[in-house]
Amino acid sequence: MSAFKDMVAADINNVFFNAGELADIFDVQGIGKIPIMQDDDRILERTDNSALGTELGEGLIFVRAADCPRMPQANERMIITDKNGRKAEWYVRHIVENTGVYEIRLHRRKQEAYG
Q: The whole model's pTM is what?
C-alpha cells in the first residue's frame, strides 16, 4: 500500500471513527455497538428542500465496513439505538462502499420512534 493510502486508512480509523472526535457509538441491532459518523448537513444538500429532508426522516451515516458482518442491502431494516437508549427504525435507501467505509442513506417509513 502507498504511504498516502496508509495515511488515509489511519485517519479513517483514528479520526473519523474515533468516538472522541467525529463519531458516536450506536447499538445497531444484529451488529452491536459500533462507531457511526452522522452527516446531517450532507443529507440536507441532497434534498430539493432542506427542511423536507429532515421532516421525512432521512439520514446519512458512515460506518466502517470492517464493523459490519456484511454490506447492508437496499430496503433492509436497521434498528439503531443511541447513547441515551432511544431506538429508531430506519430502512436503507442507498449504500456505497469507498475505501473501507459504507455511506448509507437511510429513511424512515414511520415518523415515530421505534421503541
A: 0.77
